[in-house]
Design brief:
Layout (H helix, E strand, L loop, with lengths): L2 H18 L3 H11 L9 H12 L3 H8 L7 H11 L3 H14 L6 H20 L1 H10 L4 H16 L3 H7 L18 H19 L3 H9 L7 H4 L5 H28 L2 H9 L6 H34 L2 H13 L1 H4 L8 H18 L15 H5 L29 H18 L4 H17 L3 H18 L2 H18 L2 H17 L4 H33 L1
Helix pairs in contact: 1-2, 2-3, 3-4, 3-5, 4-5, 5-6, 5-7, 6-7, 11-12, 16-17, 16-19, 17-19, 19-22, 21-22, 22-23, 22-24, 23-24, 24-25, 25-26
Length: 544
């Protein structure tokens, strides 16, 4: 045996060894290297390469490789490649021709083609059924006319401007706009799509569905995308991103093909039978009651936790926990699963509002504080942030401040407000607007943006009036009063306190809150009298 013949056989054996041990990509390269040295009549190398490509989920290259095969098992792999590419009609035709041309009439080769024909027929039965298949056979003579009509429409549209075509269809040419608005699906729709994707993965991939979900999280738009696309390692990040995209494209394409060949409705029909026995409706009701039981159990556990936080007086933790519950659980739970969803959402918001009013207490050492600080102490206004000036000391690195370093506190504040604004756009019930307005007002107050606090307070009052909540209307009035107190605007503070006292007296008769508002008015009145006396004294001094 000559050296060239021995060389390509060694390369072929290396490819077989790589394919046996799972190195499919290396096996394809080895078979590609050895293919030019094989004669055209020998289809063994083509068969090996096609098997490797099908195992590597490269259906189209495998079809191009095995297209001209004439003998067994090449023609059998050609049928399999047609099925993997989704050409079901071509697969059925090639399988039937292979079974007819295969000699002898019996044996394992004939049985292989028979299995392919049975697979094709069962796929058509699962995808079309009796009615759709009969309808397609009945109107198949009209298909060429429909294809010609569609081709004519495409040729006609290719010669005309896009805006004319869309204008006749009553649509807008968004490509010509400077800014394209990308509307994201609602949170519930995102969760529904994710759940459907998991179900399809569990059906068609088995235990491998978790790997598909993990690969999806590694995409650039996934949760772990920034970990893959590190800016510090551009070359390796680019290679890793390409590998992740290739894996996800292959696996997701295989799942879509499996779903197209064996769809969910066919599985339901095989599980429950025809619709006349109503087994599917009974099963759906049973599953709905199970989900409803789980939902109500989760709601009761959440309310137990919130009542516990209220008894402990942890307003911040309750605000955080209640906001997460409203934005997570109640956004993804439908009214079909939770019929009293609106009532429960209002109860959550009112519970948080009552906890906020529980914090309106008169401090024990209120009268020990200076008169100018008593209102600030009563309304629990946080002190203004002061910029800490550190004198740099030569050689002491702890005193060095980078002038280009961003203000992390301000960035954290803007991120929290932006998240609340996004949550504000997704709310379903008006009373949730009041809660989010209060959370944004609280963030503005903690960071010293008092004018924004008043804007949020006025918006809270408008939303409370719209939904008929006197509780949140009072919280809005007290929030604005808190901002005026921080600004030392005593005149406007008196107006807000009078409105709050009137609302408490007429709509929310509570002795503790009424006493709190009365004490606030008394302290504000004392400061106004002191301010008036000081102005009169100053005026008399100037006149003298």
């Amino acid at each position: 045996m000559s050296a060239p013949e021995l060389a390509w056989q060694v390369v072929r054996d290396i490819g077989v060894h790589q394919l046996r041990h799972g190195n499919v990509g290396g096996a394809i390269d080895s078979f590609t290297e050895a293919s030019p040295r094989v004669s055209e009549d020998d289809e063994s190398m083509v068969v090996l390469k096609t098997r490797a490509q099908l195992k590597y989920c490269e259906a189209l290259p495998a079809l191009e490789t095995i297209r001209n095969a004439r003998k067994y098992p090449g023609n059998l792999l050609h049928c399999r490649a047609l099925y993997e590419t989704g050409d079901l009609e071509g697969h059925l035709l090639a399988s039937a021709n292979g079974r007819r041309h295969q000699h002898p009439a019996g044996g394992h080769r004939q049985q292989d083609f028979t299995d392919e024909v049975d697979l094709a027929l069962s796929t058509f039965d699962c995808t079309l059924g009796d009615r759709a298949g009969a309808s397609l056979l009945e109107y198949q003579h009209q298909f060429p006319a429909i294809v010609a009509e569609q081709r004519e429409l495409r040729q006609r549209s290719a010669d005309r401007p896009r805006w004319k075509i869309l204008a006749e269809a009553g649509e807008c040419d968004v490509i010509s706009l400077l800014e394209t608005v990308r509307k994201e699906p609602p949170l519930r729709e995102q969760v529904r799509r994710q759940k459907n994707k998991q179900i399809l993965g569990q059906i068609h991939l088995g235990r491998g569905w978790e790997d598909l979900m993990f690969i999806e999280e590694l995409l650039l738009s996934g949760r772990h995308g920034p970990v893959v696309q590190l800016p510090q390692t551009r070359q390796s990040s680019r290679a890793m991103a390409q590998l992740v995209d290739e894996c996800y494209t292959k696996v997701s394409g295989r799942v879509r093909l499996s779903q197209a060949c064996f769809p969910m409705y066919s599985q339901r029909h095989g599980r429950f039978g025809p619709q006349t026995n109503h087994r599917r409706e009974v099963h759906e009701i049973d599953e709905l009651l199970k989900f409803r039981y789980r939902a109500y159990r989760a709601v009761y556990n959440q309310f137990d936790r919130m009542y516990e936080l209220r008894e402990q007086g942890k307003t911040k933790e309750l605000l955080r926990y209640g906001g997460d519950v409203l934005d997570g659980f109640f956004k993804t739970t439908t009214v079909r699963v939770l019929p009293e969803k609106g009532k429960l959402v209002r109860e959550v918001c009112n519970l948080i509002g009552l906890t906020i009013l529980d914090g309106l207490r008169i401090p024990p050492r209120l009268m020990d504080a200076p008169p100018d600080r008593r209102l600030m102490l009563l309304f629990a206004v946080p002190p203004a942030k002061e910029t800490l000036v550190v004198a740099p000391v030569f050689g002491d690195i702890s005193t060095y401040r980078d002038p280009t370093e961003p203000d992390h506190d301000y960035l954290s504040y803007k991120i929290k407000v932006a998240e609340l604004e996004r949550r504000y756009q997704r709310v379903q019930y008006p009373i949730e607007h009041c809660l989010i307005d209060y959370q944004m007002a609280r963030q503005h107050l903690l960071n010293g943006w008092l004018d924004d606090v008043k804007v949020m307070g006025n918006r809270m009052i408008d939303e409370a009036i719209a939904c008929g909540s006197h509780l949140w209307q009072l919280i809005g009035l007290l929030t604005i009063a808190q901002a005026f107190c921080a600004q030392n605007n005593l005149e406007q503070l008196a107006v807000q306190l009078r409105a709050a006292a009137k609302l408490v007296q007429s709509r929310l008769p509570d002795e503790r809150i009424a006493f709190f508002v009365e004490v606030s008015q008394k302290l504000n009145r004392d400061l106004l009298m002191k301010k008036l006396a000081h102005s009169l004294e100053l005026e008399s001094t100037l006149l003298a």
